[in-house]
Here is the input.
Amino acid sequence: MPGDLRRFLNLLEERGELVRVRDRVSPVLEITALADRAVKAGGPALLFEDVEGSELPLAINLFGTRRRMAWALGLEDLDELGARLRGLIDVRVGGGLIGLASNLPKLRELAALPPKRVRRAPVQDIVWTGDEVDLGRLPVLTCWPQDGGPFVTLPLVITEDPEHGDVNVGMYRMQVMGRDVTGMHWQRHKTGARHLESAQRLGRRLQVAVALGGDPALTYAATAPIPPIPGINEYSLTGYLRGRGVELVKGVTVDLEVPANAEIVLEGYVDPEEEWVVEGPFGDHTGFYTLQDRYPAFHVTAITMRRDAIYPATIVGRPPMEDAYLIEASERLFLVPAQLILPEIVDYHMPPAGIAHNLVNVIIRKSYPGQAYKVGNGLLGLGQMMFAKVILVTDAEVAANDHPGFWRTVLANALPGRDHQVAKGPIDVLDHASRSWSYGSKLIIDGTVKHPEELGRAPGGAGARAWEPGPERDRKQLPAHAEVRDQHQPGGGFWFLTTRKQRAEQGRHIGEWAAHQAAARGVRLIAVLDHETDPRDFEDAMWTMLNNIDPERDVQVVDGGHGAGPVWVIDATPKIADEGFTRAWPDKIAMDPEVTERMAPLAERLGI
Here is the structure.
């Protein structure tokens, strides 16, 4: 069972899942070009032994497959996570809140393996303080062409609330801005931001430590949506996963405990009274650039590390990426707690194209009308699930992780205008399409088999009309439109069209035009997308659609012509000022073609 980064790398190498890169490679774009190629091909973890500008090797794509993610947690399959937790909690389907309350004592068993304090630790073999502190000695990556600089991408940021004493280990990107200064990307909903607010009320600096490397299970735990239960935090979750407490040592310049077996630790502080710094742009996990904004500055007072330290990193961007498997681990782990509150849930999945919070596929056991909405709205009230934008619910026999198949199943059982619901709520701050920063709308589509009470009539009197999904049709088989660049119907009820947007409401008008064409027969969902999208690539089309909409604004029901019946018309084009959209619209992430071409021979020689 891997207890630190080195053991995990040895395990991966023994199992043929690690490639050592001995060529000198730049941390500016070149490592990203290779890692992006590796993760999208389901390729191996990479250990760069000669990184330009640094004496430290760099490990990346550690969690880039479902299998490696399971190994990182000491498992053979991620489904074992749910089975272990189910045994701990003793789930009783139908228990509801009473069942949940009766199981809280067992939930507290998660805290039964507290961290172990040690006096000496490998991570403090080397200590840099004062003028020795220089973040430029670390192989920090500049990932994408428009990034504002190098970013620490796999940090475990450790803080303690100075008012309440609770400890948090979170993963927040950090842009390097000088020898001893980084940004600290604490978004408004994050625990780190709450700890900083507590420090500000007390009129003191907030001590911060940032661990790099160490136990892969702790790296995972820093990304997990842990519920606010007293005594349960990232250390206790790691202890539960490992079956032993995490070893911690007191910092050199901060009064915080840090993982003893980390590779590197950055110690320092954030001053809540200091003016925030401009951070970004950054090629983010959405697959789009997050634009510049202001965030707190982190001042580094010491860097400690192991001898022959290894710097861990990850990249995020257009899916699928390594973070998809971290998300899947949380999905498997928290299925059981979700079933405690919503016992009719059979399974759920967040497809990579939905970048975690844009799409949730849910399978339920249905026993009464309206149950799909009960479950969908219930999920929106569970922790970070509040950020979900689109929730699909069905009671059919389909795999939750069959992304195209799940959509087709839902569309076969959902009538536009009758079987959906729109609500408002909090949205992830990285969502660029919401009506305003961190606030937008959500869409629940009921793709269950309907009870008699649910069989109303849709707009246009099409409630009882039989519907069969149309066949696959490519561009030459579809009607032409002067503003349509490309289009495709993959079958199953979809029609994807692309356009280069040049005027207000262009996407909506094209969608309405398409709905009234004879080719709309057999279609339930028409999506108009930007000209950079490939309408033949289902994942690319859905990723673009989900990123680029605020459902209440961009999803409408149109009663199609030629007997097509009602269809959902979705305007997933970029929004512009002439439509009342006041925020800047970001670019999609793409690597510099020159870098891709330059790194291609090395990638092929390495077998990635």
Summary: The longest strand covers residues 297-305. Confidence is low (pLDDT under 50) at residues 91-102, 459-464. The chain has 16 helices and 30 strands. The domain at 323-451 is CATH 3.40.1670.10 (UbiD C-terminal domain-like).
